[in-house]
Structures are given as structure tokens and as C-alpha cells.
Amino acid sequence: MEKFDQDGVFVKKYLPELQQVPLQYIHKPWEMPQSLQEQTGCVIGLDYPPPCVDHAQRRKLALSLFRRPRIVI
Question: Whole-angstrom Cα distance, residue 61 to residue 70?
């Protein structure tokens, strides 16, 4: 999403709870410090859900699975 909505216009239009989130955190609001979350009214786990998946971790797992040797029958 960051690639296509660098200014966060789409995100802020359709996710009003992110209206006050600074641009540097608009695509990853869970990375905001707790004090900034409270200041912007976007507390993760209260006003906005926490991420369901750690994409970096899952990417690493997927790559390791692709590298594993496969048994051909």
C-alpha cells in the first residue's frame, strides 16, 4: 500500500481512526510510540487492531520452506 498511497490519502479517507496519525506511521501505526498513539487517538488494540501477521517473520519462513529439498516420488 505504501507504494501506491505514499501520502496516505486513501488510508485516511477510508480509515478515519488514522486521520491524525503522522505520515511516517500512516502505513504502520503500530510502530508509533504509546504517547503518540494516545495523542492522536489511535491506540493500538483499542482504537485500531494490532497486526495479525508479522510479515517479515512470515516472509523468512516462506523463503526457508522454498529452499528445503523436496522428495519426488
Answer: 16
